[in-house]
Specification:
By secondary structure, the chain is of the alpha/beta class. Helices cover 18% and strands 22% of the residues. β6 and β7 (171-173) form a beta hairpin. Keywords: Methyltransferase, Transferase.
Length: 244
Amino acid sequence: MDTGRKRPDGVATTDLVLSAYVGTNAEVFPHVLDLHVPRGSRIADVTWGKGAFWRNVPDDAYEVLATDIQTGVDCRDLPYGDGELDCVVLDPPYMEGLFRKSTGNMAGSGSHAAFRSRYSDSKAVPPDADGPKYHDAVIDLYLKAAVEARRVLRDYGVFVVKCQDEVSANRQRLTHVELINAFESDGFYCKDLFVVVRPNRPGVTRLLTQEHARKNHSYFLVFIKRDPAHPKRVRPPKRDRSGA
């Protein structure tokens, strides 16, 4: 018997993109794109490095513009026009120990040695002479890169940011919270957050006393550039069904 009651759309499923995964960046990054960046989008990965994020992304899925400091392009000064891009991917050095004047004083030893090869070909990333130091130098780089990302992104464009919390000078620094709060006041809306838990256990070469839980997770933060004319709107208005 037809009761005239409308059936809800959709189907029951457990095949969902989740907020946390045990795995590598290359395994999680495609989920970020699948959920938030339409196929065919023009994406600038401005800290390309060795392209590790893209290993499991089909070559023809997106128009990818790959640059980093080793190719002569600083993420704080991009060679793109205003509003030219659909998406920007940012993964700068996020350990304050990598901001050193010499490699001998750099962090990234033991189970974190991969960080040295990932960033700047194992070279130190010296902080600005007159700028902030240590963890604040990390945040400063993110904030300056975000200003440039906002410039080159179209309204409602996607800004994917990789980061990790850290302990600096024996103080807990929740980097992902600092960035979310700072970017919110800079014209971005934090739409999503992915937690990446490393599949192997981190270790240290010499432990006296442990005071903080060892970090074995990092984040993909997904931001949307707000339209300055409609700062409270977090997604573009729906198009008229007539095509207007």
